[in-house]
Amino acid sequence: MTTQHVEHEITVAAPAADVYRLIAEVENWPQIFPPTIHVDVAERTGTEERIRIWATANGAAKNWTSRRTLDPEGLRIGFRQEVSTPPVAAMGGTWIIEPLDGGSSRIRLLHDYRAVDDDAEGLKWIEEAVDRNSRSELEALKTNVELAHSSKELTFSFEDSVRIDGAAKDAFDFINEAGLWAERLPHVASVRFSEDAPGLQTLEMDTRAKDGSVHTTKSYRVAFPDQKIAYKQITLPALMTLHTGCWTFTEHDGGVTAVSQHTVVLNTANIARILGTEATVEDARVYVHGALSTNSSATLGYAKSHAESKR
């Protein structure tokens, strides 16, 4: 089998140690890499770890498990897919972060890969996916590292929660069965929902705002039965450049605590157009927080009623 090697690089206006940390801490990935939907650490021993990644490749959502070797001294992170998804037979590589003068750094992203049976079409698909994802990952890393360095006020997280006198499974099912939301939730006008692989979902919906306007959003979701559903919006309202979230369901004392968590990055370019020329970043923050919280609190309320009716 033939192994292909490719390298991409970019220079960012941020110290190498900060860049290394953002890449090393996988919980940051959905916020900094456009293709990444969700990542979690399956196991960790010293500088070795196993991570599970859900991401899009050439417009399709896929998932795989990788092993990583962290080298904080050398500012290098090696990675290798444990079980690859066809047409990929094997995939691995290295992140290398090099300090430059003036507090900047160069990020090099190396890949090596093989296609199943050396298939020419498969090889072309992988080459295009690696090139597209590497370029978008590096551009996004540059944007988000520099943004994190220059302005923390644009990024914020919050959560809403509700106590449910019912079972986690029933509350989870209500959120998981998003294809039924147009019938179950007054603020949802219509839904397009699919689950191409177990637990890997695409949700597109038209949502009504308080003023009667309808907004279309599209998300990829990763469901972990009865425990949590993580998601990332890929079609966003005008005031956001990023929106990730997670629904979690924790059983205790005969009941359930259901939580809706959001992380948002504001789009400053649209604040004046949406909220008026006098509006500030803080105004946008309050508006977005209010809109998201209204919908997620309403959804949690209906999930509570659904789960409690099942008792």
Plain-language structure description:
The protein has 311 residues and is α+β, with helices and mostly antiparallel strands. It is built from seven helices and 14 strands. The protein has helices spanning 16-24, 29-32, 120-150, 168-176, 181-184, 271-275, 281-309, and strands at residues 4-12, 36-45, 48-57, 60-71, 76-83, 88-99, 105-115, 155-164, 188-197, 200-208, 214-224, 228-235, 240-252, 255-266. It has a seven-stranded antiparallel sheet. A seven-stranded antiparallel sheet has the order 8-14-13-12-11-10-9. Strand 3 (48-57) and strand 4 form a beta hairpin. Helix 4 (168-176) packs across helix 7. The chain is globular, with a radius of gyration of 21 Å. The N and C termini lie far apart (57 Å). The model has no long low-confidence stretch (mean pLDDT 93).
Topology summary:
Layout: E1 4-12, H1 16-24, H2 29-32, E2 36-45, E3 48-57, E4 60-71, E5 76-83, E6 88-99, E7 105-115, H3 120-150, E8 155-164, H4 168-176, H5 181-184, E9 188-197, E10 200-208, E11 214-224, E12 228-235, E13 240-252, E14 255-266, H6 271-275, H7 281-309
Antiparallel strand pairs: 1-7, 2-3, 3-4, 4-5, 5-6, 6-7, 8-14, 9-10, 10-11, 11-12, 12-13, 13-14
Helix pairs in contact: 4-7
User: What is the alpha-carbon Rg in Å?
Assistant: 21 Å
Give the percentage of residues in beta strands: over 45%
Overall pLDDT, averaged? 93
Which residue ranges are poorly predicted, with pLDDT under 50 across at least 5 consecutive positions? none
Biggest β-sheet description: 7 strands, antiparallel
Shape: globular
